[in-house]
Each structure stands twice: as structure tokens, then as C-alpha cells.
Amino acid sequence: MKKIMLLLTVLLSIFTLAACGEEDDGRIEITVGMWPQPYLSEDVEMFEEWKRLFEADYPEYEIVPDPYTYSVDTFFPMAQSGTQPTIFQTWFTEPAKLIRNQFVRDISDEMEELGWYDKMDPYMKETLTFDGELYGVPRDAYGLGLVLNLNVLAEAGIVDDWDGDGVYDIHDADGNPRYPTTFEELADMSENITNTMDQYYDRDVAGMMVLSSNNNGGWQFSNMAWNFGAELQVQDSNGNWQANLDDPGAVATLEWIKEMRWEREALPESSSLSYGDWYNYIGTDRVAMAIAGNDALALPVTNFGMDKDNLAFVPIPEGPGGEQYSLFGGTPYMFSSHASDEQVLGALRFLEYMGRSPETTDISEQSMTLGRRTAEAKGMPILPELNPWDGEEYEAMVNRVDQQFINVNMDNFDPFYNSIESIRKTEAPHYSQEMYEILDSVIQQVLTNPDANPSALLSSANNTFQTQYMNDVND
To answer: Which of 54, 322, 414, 454 could crosslink 254 through cysteines, CB 3.0-4.6 Å?
Structure first.
């Protein structure tokens, strides 16, 4: 009996060590869930170098690669079984849901211990804070803007190389913008481009594209609707949250999409386009303008061989009432609810070795430089990032690195970067992904049926969203 009890005690000890992420040799195991997929050899090599440097300085830790890409379908079963990575990346729409299901943990104490808590961009920090507790660290952020294919715009006679430097300019010789600054201008320019490319080049090129699948349509529609004066979720006089998908501004936005498809014929004929399609259409000169995030501007270049000098990026235009917003989201790192304090501290310290922390040490700058150098080797356009951390020393370090590697004509990107802080707006607070999915269906119906009634469609969608999701918010 004593032998049995001894055996059980030993097994329990082993299980406890394993549960705490500790290996047989006493090293603390950190599963890094944002490891690159094996076929991304340059990225894997970069991560391996970060791992080598980190483990040399912190031999008590073992970094365990896990090439995991977040999705609700795969993460929830994984988290319910307690097998989620120690650290992983998700979207800014997800924290409330993950916290509600107790899949992630508060990291406030660890952030305070490292001295990072007050260095985070306040806007991003607010997004990751719930009931006074901090649940994540931003990797980076993005703002939605309007991507311009300058090659198509030049063929349509809209832009030219006015300063003679070999790159098309988005401002003419007098400094006037040659890109749309209002939704009315966007509609007119899109129609003009489509007609010009058809009449003079016999080519089927859409002036603009609207997404409508994989939740991407609803995601971008929400930004467009803000600029038409809509709020898709509102609080009543009692502080209860209500669905508001049939806001008059949202109806006007859907009417604009309908007009673009059926009256102006300025959109692609496909009624089911997702985020993976915009850089295909832009990169192959099949569309002139599309909405995208600044963090994805390399994709037409790396995936379809587009000349990086034929890209420009400007703010999403103003709506009819002068409202102008850029949906501001991003990628936070979050931490398993099963992670110990020591694992969280180690995972946070590893971010310094990835160049993703507020630290301004040599290793941090070296790691940030390696990231840019790897992007350069892949032929990517290198642009400034929207910094997740504040502080003069941090900003000076980022600027030093950027000055070595930025390889585009910033005049064609400055309109976005110079305005983003004043127009950024976070996503709706509740069930955003579910809301986007419902809106996808509405957009698809408008794109496939010229007789669709935007007001009726959004009223029905609003009832569905309220009944299935928003009623739960106030319980």
C-alpha cells in the first residue's frame, strides 16, 4: 500500500510540474503560438535566432515553437481542453469573449513588475483592459484606409509623375489630391475608371471593390457606415446595449453600395469577395481602389509581384456629413489562463527578443532590425508601423530602424499616417465578429439583387443580431 501511495505521489508531482509548464530538467516551458509555419523558412530562421538569444540570456526557460493561427473554430475546443499555447495572437475583437470564457489570464502584475504597464499606447491599453485588469499586449495595430493602384489610376489619366522622380504622385503639381476625399468623389472616380478602362483599353477593371464574405464585408461596412454617420451598437438611457444595424447612416451606406453595383457598375461582378481577394485584384490590375489595413500593404507585392511603387494608401473618404473615421484594430498577444506567473514573465521577456516590447535595449533594437531585414530580403514594401508603445526613447529607436529600411515614396502614404491618430475608432464592443457575419449576408443580397431593399434587409438583420446576441450582453 505504501508503494502504491509513493507511486501516486511521484506521478502527481510529475503531472503538477507538467501542468505548470516545467520540463524534467527544471526549465520553464513557454509555448509560443505565433511561430511561423514551416514553409516560411526566412521567418522560421528569424524566430530561431530570437529563441537562441533569449535562451542564452534566460537559461531557465525553454521556448517551444507552435505554429498556430487563431480562429474561433479551432481555439475554443483547444482552450476548453486546456491545450492552448502559453502566448498566442488574436484580434482586438476577441478579448471580451476569451475573458468571459476564462481562456486567458490577467497580466497586470507581470506588466507592473517589468515596468511596462504605463508605457502602452493608451488607446490600445483601453481595448485590452477589462474591469481594471490588463489581459494582453499589442503586437501592432492597423487602421483601415484606401489602397490605390497607381498603375490603373495612371492609365485612367488620374495620376501622373508630376515631380519626375519615376514614381506616380497622388498630388498634382499644385499639391491638390488626385485621390477621392469624399464618398461622392469615390463613386464618381470609380465609375470613371471602370468606363475609361473599358472604352480605351477594352479591359474589365473595377474602380472599387466591396467585400462580402468571411466576416470581412461586415467589418469594412462598419467603417463605411461610421463615415455615413451610423453607430451599429448603442446604449439606451438605462445603459443597456442595443443593436442598431438599421441606423439611417447604415441604410445610406448600403444604398451607396447598391448604387455602385447596379447604377454605376463600378464594382467587380463577384458577390462573394473576402480579404484575400483585395490584394489579388489590386496586385493584378483588376481593381483601382480597395479598403485594407496598413499592416497588409505588402501582400499585393509578395503574393502577385506588384511593383511596390505602384501602391499608395490614403484615409477612407469622408461621408456626406463630413464624418471620417478609420477602424482601428490590431493583433494583441494574449496568455493562457493555465499559464503560471513565471511563464507569463518569460513570455513577455521573449517579446523583447522579438522587438515587440517597450524596451530600448540593444537586443530590442537588434531584434527589430532583424525583422525589417527579413522583410527587405523578401522584397516587401517597408512602411512605418502604428506603434503600440509610447515614450521618447522608444520612438527614437523605432525611427532609427525605420530610416534604415523604409523603401517607398512616403509622399504617397503620408495622408494616411498623418491623419490616423485623429480619426481612429475602435470596433463595436460586443459580438463584433458575429455582427460582421450577419452584415456579410446583407451585403451579398444587395450585390446579387438589383431590387434589394437596404432598409428592410438591415431591419431584419438588426432583429436577428439583437435576438441572437445582443440580448445576452445585458443579462
So the answer is: 454
DSSP output for 72-87: HHHHHHHHHTT---SE
| 129 contacts 137 by C-beta, under 8 angstroms | no
371 and 225 in a single domain? The answer is no
User: Which one of 381, 405, 429 terminates a domain?
Assistant: 405
Q: What is the pLDDT of residues 149-194, one digit of tens each?
A: 999 999 999 999 999 999 999 999 999 999 999 999 999 999 999 9
Is residue 86's pLDDT more than 60? Answer: yes
- The alpha-carbon radius of gyration of the chain (Å, integer) is 24
Listed residues 405, 435, 458: the one ending a domain: 405
Same domain, 150 and 297: yes
Which residues, in sequence order, are bridge partners of residue 160? 169
**Do residues 469 and 253 lie in contact, with contact meaning Cβ atoms separated by under 8 Å?**
no
Dmax (CA) for the chain in angstroms is: 92
Instruction: Read off the pLDDT of residues 438-465 as tens digits, 9 standing for 90 and up.
Output: 999 999 999 999 999 999 999 999 999 9
- Looking at residue 39, the DSSP 8-state letter turns out to be T
In single-letter form, the type of residue at position 12 comes to L
Number of domains making up the chain = 2
Residue 394: predicted pLDDT = 97
Mean residue pLDDT of the chain comes to 94
Identify whether 46 is part of a domain. yes
pTM for the complete prediction? 0.90
What's the rounded Cα separation, in Å, for the pair 189 and 169? 17
